[in-house]
Each structure stands twice: as C-alpha cells, then as structure tokens.
Amino acid sequence: MSSAVILKVENLKKYFPIRAGVFRKVIAWVKAVDGVSFEVLGGESLGIVGESGCGKSTLGMTILRLYEPTEGKIFFNGQEISGLPFARLRPIRKDMQMIFQDPFSSLNPRMSIGAIIEEGMAVHGMYSPRERSSKVQEILERVGLSGNYARRYPHEFSGGQRQRIGIARAIALCPRLIIADEAVSSLDVSIRSQILNLMSELKEEYNLTYLFISHDLAVVKQICDRVLVMYLGKIVEIAGKKDLFSRPLHPYTVALVSAVPVPDPDYKVDRIILKGDVPSPINPPSGCRFHPRCPVVQDICREVEPSLREIQEGRWVACHFPGSLGLKRTKEVGVEC
Question: In sequence order, what are the residues at sequence separation of 6 or more whose Cβ sits closer than 8 angstroms to the Cβ of residue 307?
Fold first, then answer.
C-alpha cells in the first residue's frame, strides 16, 4: 500500500432540493451528505458502511462528480476536482471509475459487451481500433469470461456475469481509484465470493484503490483495510478493520457489528436491537443525529453535535462517550472472550 493520499474529501455536502407549488419553489432540502471529511491512501480498500439511506451511494456519486457537490472540496491525486469544468475533468475521469449496484441497468442493452468495454478506451483515445478489440478480449478473459462473448448483449448473461462485465469496463481504462457501490449485494452467496476474490486479485494486479460501499459488514470485513461508518449523512466512526470489528467505539457501530453473523455455533454475540427508524434527512435531529435511537444517550447528546475527532492513532469517532456501549461476546459455556 502506498503512503500517499490519493483521495481527500473536505466538508463535502450534497443537498437535494424539494420543490412544491406552481412555481416549483424550494421548500426544503434533503441533506443526503452533510459535512463529510476523510482521506484514502493509494492502494488501500476503504469500506463505507451504514443503513440504507445514510448517504453512502450519494457520497460515492458526488466524489465522481456524477452529482455536483453542494459544498466542500474533493482532491484526487493532489488536484482539486470539485470545481473543475467538464472539459478539464474529462481526462481525470479515466482514473476514477465506478462499479454500479445493478449490473443490468448499468449496461446499455443496445450495445454489445465488446462495445461497452471498448467505449471508454475510444473516448479517451487509448490504443488503435485493432488494439482495443484485442484488449477487450484480454480483459474479458481476465475477469473469468470468454473473449468470444464480446459480440453478445447484456440480456444473454446471468447476474454474476454482468457484474464481471461491469468490473471489466471499470478496469479497461487502467484507473487508480474504483468506487464499488454495493457491487455484490444482488448476487448469490457463491457468486458473491467469486466476485470478491476477483476484485482482490485485480487490486493487487493493477494496484487499485477501492472505495467499497456496502451495507454488509461481513463483505467489508473480507475485502477492506479500513472502515468508515456513516449515519444520516455524517461519519460516526473511522477505524482499521481489525480495531473496528474487535472493539467498536460508537454505539451505532456496536449495533452494526453485533448483527454480523459469526460462523461458530459456540460463539455468541448479544444482538443490539436499535429502537425506532432512521430520522428524516430533511429535518435531522438536533445534537447527535443518533441520539433518538442510542441506548446510552445523555442530555449533552440531544443538545451538542459531537465532532469527529481522533481519539487513538487511526481511530476517529463522533461521540461524546465513545466506548460506553460494549459489544458482549460469550462462548456457550459462559466464559467472556
């Protein structure tokens, strides 16, 4: 892993307007991403986790400028890209690719697989037409598909094969950063394992950096080096994989980790069931946004929003009382682990 920072996000916000009336006046804002800051090192895999609606996918789309940021800065490879016009952003795009959640709707049904993979190379003027055709077959074989499939269309493939095609399209431009948005959530467990192994192999082979967005912590534990936990548009915890799964500090993270299945019948984790639903991002709670559901809430939590601060080297937590809710693990014989 490189020690250089390849991606830096500072106070990034993405608000979506809610309009009503004859004149479509803005009456409120959906605060999907609300003041997010973090760094990603070259060659690492950073997992972004949280419940549905917490802003994970919006964060990934905003980093790639598929959504225009409302506020904040995005630095890629030392260059600020948050305010770049399209013409100047275009050559940078080949170094930042995305694997989409739905492997079918993200593929043009009117284009052959070969044309889909080759399109990006043609747009960026990479290789000659003959070289591109050869490159397409090479990439298809690298992701576990036959090069002869290049003339087929998306509807002729299974879900797992389509996701392999999506991965092939992403690596065709030799990018430095890939944002994978729920890349395996729609796949069978056996196919999911194959895709994760493939992504791990490609990471080493192409020296890729991953932002791996997922709601499945078991998947994140397998493929990621660090984990970033989001709740209602905010970061609540950032930690190395080992630290986060062995001793989560934010109460929300503790609840998430307690829900991860453990493949040991004698090993039990007391499941923490959070009460209520996720509040609306249109009108988030005052103070800590997690306080209406927090099992260890105090008065200060309702009034003062905690800042994301580093309490140990590499461990960042946005909580007034980090570590106050423990994760209880026991063996069947009742001995504390």
Answer: 318
Strands of the sheet containing 79-80, edge to edge, are: 25-41, 5-20, 71-76, 79-80
Helix (H) or strand (E) segment spanning residue 329: strand 329-331
For residues 245 and 247, what is the distance between their CA atoms, to the nearest angstrom? 6
Q: What is the CA 270 to chain-centroid distance, rounded?
A: 27
Domains and CATH numbers, the chain: 5-95+175-331 (3.40.50.300), 105-173 (no CATH)
The secondary structure of residue 282, as a DSSP letter, is T
Predicted TM-score (pTM) above 0.85: yes
How far is residue 320 from each of residues 11, 37, 87, 309, 316, measured CA to CA in Å? 20, 19, 45, 10, 12
Q: Which of 327, 336, 329, 328 is nearest to 249 (CA)?
A: 327
Q: 223 is written with which tokens?
A: 């493929």
Please give the average per-residue pLDDT across 158-162, as a whole number. 88
Q: What is the DSSP letter of 247?
A: S
Tokens of 55: 């802003």
Mind listing the pLDDT tens digit for each residue in 63-106? 999 999 999 999 999 999 998 998 899 999 999 999 988 878 88
Amino acid identity, position 337: C
Number of other residues whose CB lies within 10 A of the CB of residue 312: 11
Question: What sign results for the dihedral spanned by CA atoms 167, 218, 228, 39?
Answer: negative
Would you give the end-to-end CA distance of the chain in angstroms?
32
